[in-house]
Amino acid sequence: MSWAAHEFENYFLQKHVGLRASFLGIVLGTFAPDLFTKALVYESSDPAQFHRGWPGVGLTHSFIFGFAFAVIVLAVTRSRAWALGILIGQWAHVLTDIADTAGVMPFFPFSLEPVTISMWKHAAAEGRYGDAAAYYSSLGGAWDLFWLVVVVLFARRTLRADYFRQVVVRADPRAWGWLHRTFRLPEAALLLLYRGLIFYGLGRMTVWFLYARLEARTPFEPLWAGPRYITGNDLSDAGPLEVLVRTTVGGVLFAAFLYLCWRLFVRRLWERGTPTAASPAPAVP
Amino acid sequence: MSTPDTWGPGPGAWAYVAAFLAYVALGLLTRSVVLNWIVGPLFPLLALYVVPRAVAGLVHRS
Fold it and tell me: Which pTM does this prediction carry?
């Protein structure tokens, strides 16, 4: 699993979607796969299988989960900005988690084959603290750092106050307005809330890295498929060609499923939804 | 051409740095108390807005 990368990627996604999606929707989307399951993962007898496999809660790390979540939100709230934010955020989470050894099933239920590039070991079997120490002893920590650098280099303007005002709030005035009114938060406080995720990502990256070095004293092995002191936990014995074929078939079926859903009911939900702030204003007759 | 508003109203860069150092120290000492999905993202709001405001309110009252 990825740790702080999921916080950093919110700002990178925000820069690219601009006024089209809600930042809070993106955040909910990136949190969604682990939101209801992460606590249970550490209690499981086979954490990798439970977290990413089937049977298990691996479906939360599939594109169909984000799609279903976004469609439900669109049907209930009629907010295109929130539906789009949730979809993009959840799909980004799925893609990010391809990097550990357990991988994800992106095209569940059309393919149950886990897809992974095995950059570092999925180490939830070590418990929460052991998982953190293993992650920040492997390329996982470098992955977090990579996302932080990406945000600093390419999306730092999303952290500015004027960007928050002109893009983030304008894209989702109802939610930010509600926070402002309900909790009596002025703009200064809303900005602190908005920047809280990058703060949290950087903070937990620093703390867990220091914990791994100073307290757990786990060997620092930023090598491919490290750290070596964790036993392998791949969920599939399939070779690369087998994975490629199954995933391609799953991907084609999933695309057909999306198209069918769009034609049957999603287009109608989308059309009755509230246009995003990026939508062109209706022509005046 | 107007200058971009980087920090906006409220605390400046040094306040964020101080809050960050406090967060790291608390994280190392307490771990799960602050390193979770609720307290973590809310920490800047709590440390730089809610707590100072509450303290100022108490001082003003006494």
Answer: 0.94
Distance in angstroms (rounded) separating the CA atoms of residues A227 and A140: 10
What pLDDT digit, counting tens, does each position of A166-221 carry?
999 999 999 999 999 999 999 999 999 999 999 999 999 999 999 999 999 999 99
The Cα–Cα gap between A169 and A22 comes to 8
With tokens 């969604």, the residue in question is A32
| Mean pLDDT (whole number) for A47-59 | 94
Q: Which domain holds residue A14?
A: 5-272
Q: Does B14 touch chain A (CB under 8 A)?
A: no
CA A186 vs CA A27, A42, A179: distances in Å:
21, 39, 9
Q: Which residue has the tokens 């007898």?
A: A45
Which residues of chain B have a CB within 8 Å of the CB of A128?
A: 32
Q: Which amino acid is at B21?
A: L
Domains: count for chain B: 1
pLDDT of amino acid A283: 58
In a domain, A283, yes or no: no
Question: Is residue A45's pLDDT more than 60?
Answer: yes
- The domain of B33 spans 13-61
* Whether residue A157 has pLDDT greater than 60: yes
Q: How far apart are CA A1 and CA A102, in angstroms?
A: 8
Residue contact B8–A210, C-beta within 8 A: no
Tell me whether B57 touches chain A (CB under 8 Å): no
Q: Which two tokens stand for residue A223?
A: 């090598």
Residue B38 lies in a domain: yes
Number of separate domains in chain A: 1
Q: Could you tell me if residue A236 is inside a domain?
A: yes
Determine, yes or no, domain membership for A20: yes
**From A162, A188, A200, residue closest to B41, measured CB to CB:** A200
In a domain, B5, yes or no: no
Per-residue pLDDT tens digits for A205-264: 999 999 999 999 999 999 999 999 998 777 888 889 999 999 999 999 999 999 999 999
Cβ count near A87 (within 10 Å): 23
